[in-house]
Amino acid sequence: MLAAATLFVFTSAGLASAHVTIGPNATAKGGSDVELTFRVPDEEEAANTTKLEVVFPTDHPITGVLPEPTPGWTVAVTNTTLPKPITTDDGTVTQVVSELTWTGGALPPGQYQGFHVMLGKLPDDTNQLVFKAVQTYSDGDVVRWIDLAQPGQPAPDHPAPVLVLTGSGSGSGSGSQASNTSAGTPSVTASASTASPSSSDTTARTLAGVGIGAGVAGLTVGALGWSRARRKSSGSTPTD
């Protein structure tokens, strides 16, 4: 009985601390075709989650947002016109997605649902993207996941999902790898170049001679074996 009560306390505490989050929570600036998942927990005791609204940033717009179909849910896409068009390799973009709204489903208490989207092109002029979310329950309760963490302040009770944008890292990573590779190469090259041409030639001739001798010996043994086998076979054959 005590164990069951303890389990209930831990489970309730886990539900109370759950938030709407995104995964991954960090990716490279300017990345393309990034799959993002909004993970939504149901923290009510007896009410289902029936609606999720996610606001996309337009101050640092994302070009190309494609929601993945979620079984049992319908998604509505809201677009907004940019004050300043964006020029891309595919042309000029004048409108971007500003909000996605999922309805029609029923997420039961104690469970969570992942809502997946594909982001076409991330901005490279900011260090983070904030996706404010609003969760609606079947009993009418509304939870707004819109607060931002402030330096020196406790974590907010209803934090907004944040995607951290970092440098691609390809330049520093490849540079480090190239540095390590070039550092290890000279010793290998020096070792290979220490052998003189005459030494290499003598070694090659010696190995060739050994190989030929071994081949002749192999042929001789093979011939003797074949001859013995033939004599044995002839001696054991019945005569008329």
Structural class: alpha+beta
Helix content: 25-40%
CATH class of one domain: Mainly Beta
Number of strands: 12
Q: Sum up the overall morphology in one term.
A: globular
> What is the N-to-C succession of helices and strands?
HEEEEEEEEEEEEHH
| Strand order in the sheet with the most strands | 6-7-4-10-11
Using only C-alpha atoms, the radius of gyration works out to: 36 Å
**Which residues form runs of ≥5 with pLDDT under 50?**
1-16, 169-240
Question: What is the CA–CA distance across the termini?
Answer: 97 Å
Give an overview of the whole structure.
A hairpin with a 4-residue loop joins β10 (132-137) and β11. This protein has a domain at 2-166: Uncharacterised protein YcnI-like PF07987, DUF1775 (Immunoglobulin-like), CATH 2.60.40.2230. The chain starts with a helix and ends with a helix. The protein has 3 helices and 12 strands, in the order αββββββββββββαα. The longest helix has 40 residues, at 197-236. Helix content is 33%, strand content 37%. With 240 residues, the protein is of the alpha+beta class. The strands form 3 sheets. It has a 5-stranded antiparallel β-sheet, with no helix packed on it. Strands 1-3-8-5 form a 4-stranded antiparallel β-sheet, with no helix packed on it.
Protein topology:
Elements: H1 2-16, E1 21-23, E2 26-28, E3 32-41, E4 49-55, E5 63-67, E6 74-88, E7 91-107, E8 112-121, E9 128-130, E10 132-137, E11 142-145, E12 162-166, H2 170-193, H3 197-236
Parallel strand pairs: 2-12
Antiparallel strand pairs: 1-3, 3-8, 4-7, 4-10, 5-8, 6-7, 9-12, 10-11
